[in-house]
Every structure is written in structure tokens, then in C-alpha cells.
Amino acid sequence: MATPPPAPHGRRRRGLPSSEADRNHSAGTSGEAGLGFTGTTSGTHRKLRCRGSTHWPSRRKRRFWGSRQGRTRKPSRRDAPPTRSASISSVAKRWRCRLAHGGDPGGSCSPLASSGHRLWDLGLRSPVASWPGPRGSRSLGGPEVAIADWPSVSLPVQGSQLSGSPPLAWRKVLEAKAARARGLLEQQLCQAKAAVQNFWQKHLNICHPDIFVSPQHPNIHAESIVCLSLLELTQKLQEGVLCPELVVYSYMEQVLQAQKELNCLTGLVPGWEQQLQELQQRLHRGPLYGVPISLKDSYQCQGQVSSCGTFTLLDSPAMEDSVIVKVLKSQGAVVFAKTNIPQAMMSYNSGNPIFGNTLNPKNHKRSPGGSSSGEAALIATGASILGLGTDLGGSIRLPASFCGICGFKTTSARLSSKGVTPILSGAKLVTSSLGPMARDVDSLVLCMRALLCDELFRLDPTVPPLPFNDQLYSCSKPLRIGYYESNGFFEPLPCMKRAMQQSQELLERAGHQLIHFPVLQIEYMTFELFYGSFMADGMETIRELL
Questions:
Q1: Residue of 47, 296, 326, 338 marked active site
Q2: Which DSSP state fits 305?
């Protein structure tokens, strides 16, 4: 008997086997993607699967199976599937899906595509794929691959979710949770604004911080405080020329203004005023004494939610501070703000459906990059002098580049990640790194020197007990530096090539030896190692968070 024509995607073919045992005997195609449908009579479990066979059971068999189960009615839209999944033979197969934004993990094939509520649609609109390369779209070799070769993903689909939007009741629940989170942020901002005004009026008997902020030093203004470099600020704090209250409240004033312009915050750290009171009672002044520090949203602070832009984590406030936050407080720092990130920290953009988009302080029509979006924007606008971010695929380096500041990606496990909210807790091959972000390199060095202390090694024994090597840092011995101009996968922009050439000339002029090396097996490292391990669970963890 001739093979029936393929059914359009999303419709159920009549006469399909209805029992769970008979489900394995049917297979088919759907549209261009080669997708078949199987289902049950109750309509509670029906799955979309990738099958190798292109033949449907005969009409007689379909009629027989349907009669055995007592099916007398034609399947209708009431049998909408609650789950939709795809299976493949191996997770580590090469992805040939076209990612939006030049390979951005937050593109059209990701769980973060186009909407905070829309999950991964498996790329059904473009079943055959190729990667954007140096010469535009190009095939990666071999035959073109359909959806059946993609990693396994199981997505919840209920009713109207087949069209990409959640049911109305579920959407209202999510909007209510997001509204509560934004309301809490506004409440914290109002309290901080009142605290700043009370400080200027009560302690200094003035109404505006632009007037002299210190009766003992009338030549010091609030604007001059936020313009100091980190080295200059720490020196004045250690000498007693400035007190921590003046510094923190001056920066808090700038934070409130930056939030209005850039929308770069997810919250203020509870107890930041109490931290100032505890500093006055301490006899030991650490290297970061009185320095206000902002953190990426994923850093956990006691009593504060680290949602990472996802609705699931909105109801889980941290029970204690992360190890890095404890170390910062032990060194005298005042942790006072948490900054915005893209949803699940898996995008180079800067927005999430809870707190919205963060703007670039250099150009409000541009993105500050991701995923340390708010941190880079806050530092670039002068509202924070030092911050901490995380980096997996450029989440510190890209925002720092987009906003014109400095960022440092440390080696994995160089700093403790205990208490930093993980998105993929089981990913061991590709791990995230923590690192500082500041206006200049000297600030990064001071931060790393303060973090790599005995307190860090005591709180987290898994961190190698290697303090900052000042002798190696200050050594003037020429270095051997390896570099490459292109990885053979993405062609660098002309401005990037020019920056590399200028850096090479400056380093060689300084007496350093530069060695060019090629990047080997870039496709294997990208698909087999990075994506094969990073998404080995078929994005199931991300699906649960969203």
C-alpha cells in the first residue's frame, strides 16, 4: 500500500495505536522535519518523537487497533499533548542548528528565545541547519542533518503552549511573581533614598551631597569621592581622611540615579547599613575597608533572592552569604547592591522577563552585553567602584568590552563558587569562573590580592591555597606570550584585528616574546566538548528553571 502523505506539524493522524504497548509499532513523518506522532486514548500522554521509519501502519491495522481500544470518536484538539520531546542516538552529535546573533546561546534555538515565557521550539521552523561562519552560513561537512540529530529535549506543553505562549492562568501566576519581585526592588530603593537623605541632613546638616561632605575637610565633595580610583579611595579610607559612611552614601546616591537611567539592579543587599555600623566596631581594617562593592545577581546574600532571571528561584531566598561575600566582609568591604543579568545567564543580551532590560551607559540603544550586564553598566556609569561577576563563555569579558571597563576571568576554582547560584549544577567539564570588574587594572589586582587570603582557603578547602604572588606580578622579566588572531570558527571584526595588532606591537616593544599558535580541532572542541557536555541533559535543567 502506498505511503500516506505526511501530516502537518501539530495535528494528530486518525487511527493511530492508542495503547502504551502498541505505541512502539507506529512511526511516521511530519512535515520536513521527519517527526511522527503517537498517543493514548486519554489524551494525557502524547509525545512527538523523531523516528527513522517513513511508513505508517496500514489502514486495516489502524482500524483494528482503534477498535480494540474501543475508540469510536475521531481524535480532536481536546487531545492536546501535555509533553513534547525529541530523542536522538547520541547527545554529543554535532549541532547544525542556526543560532541567532552569530552563535549566541540565547538565540532562536535556545530556551530563552524571543520571550521569557517561550521555551525551546526545537527549531522546527528550520529543520536543516548550518553554522554561521567567517563566510556567512556554511555547512560543517557531511550531509545536512534534520531534527532527529539534535540533542534530546523534553518540554512541557499545555494547551495553547503549542503556539509558543503559556496558558493564561499560568501566565498570570508568573506575572504576579514578577510584579512582587519588582515591588520589593522599588521598596528597597525608596528605603535607600530615605536613608541617604536622612544621612545628609542628620549628620552633616545639609540637604544635598554636592555641598561639602566633611566639616574637617571642606574641599572634599561627593562628586570627588566617586571620581577617585580604588587605590586612591582605599588610601584615604585607611588614613582616615574619608569615613566609610561618606563613601557608601555617596555611591548609593549614584546607584539610585543609575537605576533610573539604566535599570541595572535586581535588589539592594539587606543590612548594608548594619555593615557600616559593624565597621566602626572593628579594630582590624582590611585592604577593602569601607569600599562599597556590587555583585552579580547570582552571588547569594543572606535574606536576598538570587533568581538569575528565572521564576523558579524567586521563592528561594539565600539562607547564608556565599563564601566570596563572607571574605569581602572580612576584608572590610560593604556589599550593597546586586545587579541585573539575562535570563538563566545564558545570553549575551541583558534582559529577563522579571526585571527587564539593562541599557548600555555609553549608548542607551545598545546592549551592555551579558551575562554580567548590570554589573558592567553600574561600574561604567560611576555608581560602583568594584564588582564581581561570573564567566563561562565571556560573561565578564564581553560586558567589560561593551561598556569600556576592565574585567578579569580567573582560572576555574581559583575563587570559591560556594554560594553562587549554579544554573547547570551537574556540568563538570565546562565550569564557570568568578572574577572582578572595575574601571582599571590596578583595581582588579587589589581585589584579587584581597580575595586570595587565608579566610577564603579556610571557608572553602577545595580552593588551592595559593595567595596572590606579588613577586611574580611585580617582576620585570620578559614573558613568553602565546596568541592567535582567529580561531577558524568566527572571523574577528576589523576593529578586533586592529586591537590585536596594536597590542602585539606594544608588547614586543616592551621586550616580551610573542608566539603565534593555531587553534586545533575547533569544531570538535565546540560541538563535542562544549555543547556536548554543557547541554548533556538535553537542557532538562534549564527547562525546569523556566
A1: 296
A2: B
Residues 162 and 183 in one domain: no
Q: Which tens digits make up the pLDDT trace of 231-277?
A: 999 999 999 999 999 999 999 999 999 999 999 999 999 999 999 99
User: Can you tell me the distance from the alpha carbon of 512 to that of 508, in angstroms, rounded to the nearest whole number?
Assistant: 5
Boundary residue ending a domain (433, 453, 475): 475
Query: What's the pLDDT tens digit per position in 55-80?
Result: 444 444 444 444 444 444 444 444 44
268 lies in some domain: yes
Cis peptide before 371, with omega less than 30 degrees from 0? yes
Q: Tens of pLDDT along 443-501?
A: 999 999 999 999 999 999 999 999 999 999 999 899 999 999 888 888 899 998 999 99
Helix (H) or strand (E) holding 154: strand 153-156
Is 395 noted as a catalytic residue in this protein?
yes
Question: What sign does the CA torsion over 148, 151, 156, 157 have?
Answer: negative
- The catalytically annotated residue of 371, 373, 384, 416 is 371
Average pLDDT over residues 377-386: 97
Same-domain check for residues 106 and 218? no
Residues 76 and 116 in one domain: yes
Same-domain status, 84 and 27:
yes
296 annotated active-site: yes
Catalytic residue among 18, 395, 417, 443: 395
Q: Is residue 2 a part of any domain in this protein?
A: no
Among residues 263, 244, 247, which one has the least CA distance to residue 209?
247
- Structural domain boundaries enclosing 192: 171-475
- Residue 371 falls in the annotated catalytic set: yes
